[in-house]
């Protein structure tokens, strides 16, 4: 009988030989982590409480509910108060204080997402992914260099801006609909068109590459328009609330078609699907429902920057998990790059952190603090259960300037402190009762704002 060390030595040699043979004939390495297809779906102006998986009884979202039940629901997921800043944060992993995208990029505005930014699409394409965007860009178009096909996307379909007519594609008399950054004459309801294109891309993608499909829907941004058939289930609602509900259901149906295409093509088990809204719902209480959060779109109260989100990857993420750990949309940048095997070295500092352990293992948030920023002079920081909101003059911020506007802001400077664990609705300002905590959080906020760049539209 051979000594144990000889047996172990023979086994080790066999493993090495098998590995070498695999390299020669092209087999994947043993226990290699699969590179997922990535489908990132972004709703526009969706209310916090307007999906079934968080308890909505008014609006039907069966396809999103199924994804949520089969994956991880993110109950404390943070974005920016309006659309362009959220999109910039997702595609760069960087806060607005670094990119200058604090506000909406308007049509023909001579600025956009800075051209020195390495986008998520850039990085994934470099890593061998086929990259496509179907939906709203909103990060600049006044020069070709700012458009999607020049920012890392192999394919583009949809619109550059928001607030266009869902049927005619007109915004202020100008048509806003493009394929590969060239004017496109396709007709139909925009939610349906974006779903059709997403399905086409899934079915016709290059077979030798993983897919990154970014689907930032026009829905459910105003104007409130939807085919008549989607209104039928909501006859008990009135006005724009009824139309909005139908728009949510139409978007949910479109998401169902995207998932069905993944299943039909045998891709579903290998696909990570992420869903989020770009900011909180506008006109809360009248059109959207952000309860129990305070306020809505355009603010840095929870109703403006906290949205429900989900992540679903069969067999890789647990079904039925919910996490209340604070996460920001900047975190998807490094997380997706790591899953894709893309180089993590960046030419510019990244604010996002790897959240995969939070999703897959139920770990704590990797953040000591998260920045929530409406502008360099109105910002908030969340650390643990505590949130500090500071509204101050621009000239109090390093690099700021004294203007009539900043002097006016100084006249209404405020400091607010909330314990979100017991006051998610931000009704009880504890700033005067917790001066030490205010000072501690002010230091964290000052560190975020120390080198804040000016807004892109002011540079």
Structural class: alpha/beta
Give the number of helices.
Answer: 12
Radius of gyration: 23 Å
The CATH topology of the largest domain corresponds to Alkaline Phosphatase, subunit A
Per DSSP E runs of 2 or more residues, the count of β-strands stands at 17
The CATH C-level name of the largest domain is: Alpha Beta
How many separate domains make up the residues? 2
Strand residue content: 15-25%
Rounded to the nearest angstrom, the distance between the terminal CA atoms is 80 Å
**What shape does the CA trace take?**
globular
Unreliable parts: 1-31, 394-411
Give an overview in words:
The chain has twelve helices and 17 strands. With 459 residues, it is α/β, with parallel strands linked by helices. The protein folds into two domains: 325 residues, Alkaline Phosphatase, subunit A (3-Layer(aba) Sandwich); 89 residues, 2-Layer Sandwich (Arylsulfatase, C-terminal domain), CATH 3.30.1120.10. The strands form three sheets. Strands 1, 2, 3, 4, 7, 8, 9, 10, 11, 12 and 13 form an eleven-stranded mixed beta sheet that branches. Strands 14-15-16-17 form a four-stranded antiparallel beta sheet, covered by helices on one side. Strands 5-6 form a two-stranded antiparallel sheet. A hairpin with a 2-residue loop joins strand 5 and strand 6. The N and C termini lie far apart (80 Å).
Characteristic terms for this protein:
2 domains; Alkaline Phosphatase, subunit A; disordered N terminus; 459 residues; eleven-stranded mixed β-sheet; four-stranded antiparallel β-sheet; Arylsulfatase, C-terminal domain; 17 strands
């Amino acid at each position: 009988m051979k000594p144990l060390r000889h047996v172990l030595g023979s086994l080790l040699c066999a493993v090495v030989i098998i590995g070498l043979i695999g390299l020669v004939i092209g087999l994947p390495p043993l226990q290699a982590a699969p590179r997922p297809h990535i489908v990132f779906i972004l709703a526009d102006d969706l209310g916090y409480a307007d999906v079934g998986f968080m308890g909505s009884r008014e609006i039907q979202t069966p396809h999103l509910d199924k994804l949520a039940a089969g994956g991880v629901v993110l109950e404390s997921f943070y974005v920016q108060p309006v659309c362009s800043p959220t999109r910039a944060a997702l595609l760069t992993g960087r806060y607005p204080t670094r990119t200058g995208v604090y506000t909406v990029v308007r049509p023909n505005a001579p600025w956009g997402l800075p051209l020195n930014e390495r986008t998520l699409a850039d990085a994934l394409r470099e890593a061998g992914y086929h990259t496509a965007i179907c939906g709203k860009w909103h990060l600049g178009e006044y020069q070709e260099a700012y458009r999607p096909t020049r920012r890392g996307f192999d394919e583009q379909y949809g619109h550059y801006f928001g607030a266009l007519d869902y049927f005619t594609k007109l915004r202020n008399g100008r048509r806003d609909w493009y394929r590969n950054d060239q004017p496109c004459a396709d007709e139909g309801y925009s939610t349906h068109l974006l779903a059709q294109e997403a399905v086409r891309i899934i079915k016709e993608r290059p077979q030798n590459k993983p897919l990154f499909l970014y689907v930032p829907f026009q829905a459910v941004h105003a104007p409130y328009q939807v085919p008549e058939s989607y209104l039928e289930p909501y006859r008990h609602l009135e006005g724009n609330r009824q139309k909005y509900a139908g728009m949510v259901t139409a978007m949910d149906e479109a998401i169902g078609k995207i998932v069905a295409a993944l299943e039909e093509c045998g891709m579903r088990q290998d696909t990570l699907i992420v869903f989020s809204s770009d900011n909180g719902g506008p006109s809360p209480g009248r059109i959207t429902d952000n309860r129990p959060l305070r306020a809505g779109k355009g603010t840095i109260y929870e109703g403006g920057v906290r949205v429900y989100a989900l992540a679903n990857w069969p067999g890789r993420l647990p079904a039925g998990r919910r996490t209340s750990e604070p996460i920001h949309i900047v975190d998807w940048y490094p997380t997706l790059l790591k899953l894709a095997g893309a180089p993590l070295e960046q030419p510019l500092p990244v604010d996002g952190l790897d959240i995969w352990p939070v999703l897959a293992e139920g770990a704590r948030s990797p953040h000591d603090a998260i920045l929530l920023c409406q502008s360099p002079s109105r910002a908030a920081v969340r650390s643990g259960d505590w949130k500090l909101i500071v509204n101050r003059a621009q000239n109090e911020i390093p690099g700021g300037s004294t203007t009539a506007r900043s002097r006016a802001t100084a006249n209404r400077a405020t400091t607010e402190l909330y314990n979100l664990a017991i006051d998610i609705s931000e009704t009880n300002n504890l700033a005067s009762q917790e001066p030490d905590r205010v000072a501690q959080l002010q230091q964290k906020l000052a560190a975020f704002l120390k080198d804040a760049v000016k807004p892109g539209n002011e540079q």
